[in-house]
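stage 2 :: seqdesign
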């Protein structure tokens, strides 16, 4: 169920999810590049860290319109989105997301 999402809001949310996923992928690649590997033990620790990063993000970007406002607020909180990414949403929806983001700070 789409919880009263207009076609425009759905389109904006889908585009925002794609942007958030791209930003999260760039973030994890930067973390990987910065990880110091000097010996085999460091490499094994990196492997475990990569698994954790993957587990955290595995289903994070599957948009579920029953909880999409929470998802968008979380991505804003994690800086995977900027407020401008949601500018085309309806004012009411944008305000609800902004309120949820405020609770997370």
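stage 2 :: out
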């Amino acid at each position: 169920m789409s919880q009263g999402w207009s076609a425009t809001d759905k389109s904006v949310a889908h585009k925002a999810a794609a942007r958030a996923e791209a930003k999260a992928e760039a973030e994890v690649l930067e973390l990987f590049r910065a990880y110091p590997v000097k010996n085999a033990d460091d490499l094994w620790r990196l492997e475990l860290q990569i698994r954790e990063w993957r587990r955290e993000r595995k289903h994070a970007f599957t948009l579920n319109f029953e909880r999409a406002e929470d998802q968008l607020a979380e991505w804003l909180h994690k800086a995977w989105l900027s407020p401008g990414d949601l500018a085309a949403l309806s004012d009411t929806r944008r305000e609800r997301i902004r309120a949820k983001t405020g609770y997370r700070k």
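stage 3 :: structure notes
- Helices lie at 7-34, 40-57, 68-77, 91-104.
- Residues 7-34 form the longest helix (28 residues).
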